[in-house]
Specification:
The complex is a heterodimer of chains A (about 160) and B (about 230). In chain A, about 75% of the residues lie in helices and about 0% in strands. Chain A has about 160 residues and is mostly helical. The two termini of chain A are about 30 Å apart. A 6-stranded antiparallel beta barrel of chain B has the order 1-2-5-4-3-12. Chain B has a 6-stranded antiparallel barrel with strand order 6-7-8-11-10-9. The chains are: A mainly alpha (about 160), B alpha+beta (about 230).
Chain lengths: ~160, ~230
Amino acid sequence: MATALLVPVLALAAPAALQLDGVPPSWAVLWLLPWALADGPLSGAAAGLALALVLDGLHPGPLSQAPALGLLGWWWGRLGRQAPLIQRSFNLGLLALLGAAALGASLWLQQIWQGVGTAAALHTLLAQTLITALLAPMLCSLQLLLWRRLSPGNRGRTLQADR
Amino acid sequence: MAWPWLALLAVFGAVRLSKGAAVIDAYALLSRPFWPGTAQSDWLRSAQDLDRQVRLQQLEADNRRLRGLLELDRAAGSAVRGAPVISRQAGGWWQQLVIGRGALQGVRSGDAVLAPGGLLGRVASVTPTTATVLLLTDSSSRIGVWVGRVRHHGLLVGVGTSRPVLRFIERDVGARPGDLVTTSPASTLLPPNLTIGVIQRVNEQAVPAPEAVVQLSAPVHAVDWVQVRRP
C-alpha cells in the first residue's frame, strides 16, 4: 500500500523521459490496475477513490478523477476475481489502455459539461492512453508479481489453487 | 611630336567621362585592408544596447513616479520574490507549475508569476511552503489583456494547447498578426504592462467577436526560476 505514495510523487515529478509529446502517463491507472487485480473489487474501488482524492487535491480547477478511478478499481477487482488469472503482459496493456481511455473520456466529458472542452483534449487523451498502455506491461506485471509474492495467502493464489 | 600628349589627354578625358571609375576602383583595391570591419559594428551595437538600457531604466523610473502621482500603484504591491520551479506539468489534463515558495514567504493566491520573457500565469493555491501556479495555457485560465497598438481589451482564454486564444470584446478591432499582447495598463488584478505574447493569427469571422491565437513569450519548458509579483 505504501507504493501508492509513489503515484502523487510521480505525478508531480512528471519525468520528462516518460512523456509522449509532453503528456505524462496516468500513474494512477498504472498503480490501480495491478492493485485491483490482486486485491478485489471493494479494495480496488476504495483505493481508486482515495488515490483520486489525493490527485484532485494536487490540481487546481474543478476536474475530478474520482468517478472514473473508483469504477475502474471496482471493474478490475471483479476481473481479477472472476476471470482466469490475468498475468500476460498483453492483457495488462489492453486493460490499462481501456482504463486510461475511460479516465480521459471522463475528464473530457467534465470539461465539455463545464463549457471549457476543446479539441486539444483529444490529443491529451490519445497521448496519455498510448503512453499508459505502453508502460503498463512493464510496470504492472512487476507490481502484480510483487504483491502476489508479498502475500502468498491472498485471493490470487487461492484462485490459482482452485483452478 | 604632340601625339603622346594627345593620347594622355584622351586618357584623362576617358577618366572624366567615366566619372573616375578606374581611379576609384583602384583606390578601393588599395584601401581594402583598412576598411571598417565587423568589430566596429559590434561596438556600435553594444553602445546602442547601453543607450537603450539606460533609456529603459529612466522610463521605468519616470513611469513609477507618474503612477505614484496617479495613485495607481499601491505601496505594498511592488514586492518581487524569486521562486524555484519544483514541479512542471505543462502538458496533459492540467497545465500547472508548483513553485517552492508559499504562504510563509508571503506568496498569496492571485499573485502574478513571471518568467524571463513575460507572464506565465497566476497563483491558484498556496500551502505553507509551496504554491500552485495555473498557467495561461490551462483550459480553466482566463485573464483580461490589452492589445496596445489597436487599444482594445480582450479575454485571454487557455485552450489546453501551448497557444491560448484571445477573445476580443468589440467587433471591429483591426488586430494583425505581430501585435503585442500585454496586461492592461490600468490593471489592478495583475501588475500592469507585463508582456504576455504576440498575436499569431486572427480570425475575423469568429462570432460574436474576433478571436486571435497568441504565441506566449515566456518559455515555460525552459524556466527553472520564476518571479512572483503582487499587483
